[in-house]
Design goal:
With 178 residues, this protein is an alpha+beta fold. The chain is built from four helices and five strands; from the N terminus they run H-H-H-E-E-E-H-E-E.
Length: 178
């Protein structure tokens, strides 16, 4: 059998101790890196969890506000009907004119303009009456029961102090439906 004696034994023990020490340091470095990577992953997961919680809170807030959203949708659907419904628009304008003691003299519809989610229905309107009543009429149209955007307004005073005449270029809207 082979036996190691003297200084060689001392060098082998020192070499083995150095090898064990190097392996221990390598294992510790590996474990420290693994722990650092795990902590980074935990931090990312915690951040993702916080984002998910914030998203859930927003969704719950939207769920809680669903009645308000439904009310706003119903309002929008009333303001922008699914069909052009020109007759209803004409009745609306004539009713407002009557309520404000005005006379709707002429209403003409122009060609429709196709937008992404709705159609634009341009029209011109000539109406006459007092300045005060015309102002009230225009406020009512602006805040009324149908989405109408006035794009141009020309006002002229009647001869000899007669009623004022207003020529209005406007746009009504309707949805294109699904």
């Amino acid at each position: 059998m082979f036996s190691i004696t003297g200084p060689a034994r001392k060098y082998i023990i020192i070499g083995l101790a150095a090898l064990v020490l190097i392996l221990a340091v390598a294992v510790i470095v590996f474990q420290v890196n693994a722990i650092r990577d795990l902590r980074a992953e935990v931090k990312e997961e915690e951040q993702a969890l916080e984002e998910a919680r914030a998203y859930l809170a927003r969704l719950q807030e939207h769920r809680d506000r669903a009645p308000e959203y439904e009310e706003r949708l119903a309002f929008a659907e009333r303001m922008i009907p699914p069909e052009p419904d020109e007759d209803r628009l004409l009745r609306y304008i004539h009713r407002l004119a009557y309520e404000y003691d005005l006379r709707a003299r002429e209403i003409n519809f122009d060609s429709r303009v196709d937008e992404d989610m709705y159609m634009i229905m341009p029209f011109t309107l000539e109406i006459e009456g007092s300045f005060r009543d015309l102002g009230a009429f225009l406020r009512h149209v602006y805040n009324g029961e149908r989405a109408i955007r006035i794009s141009d307004l020309e006002m002229s005073r009647g001869e000899g102090g007669g009623p004022a005449t207003v020529s209005i270029s406007a746009r009504a809207f309707y949805s294109q439906g699904d």
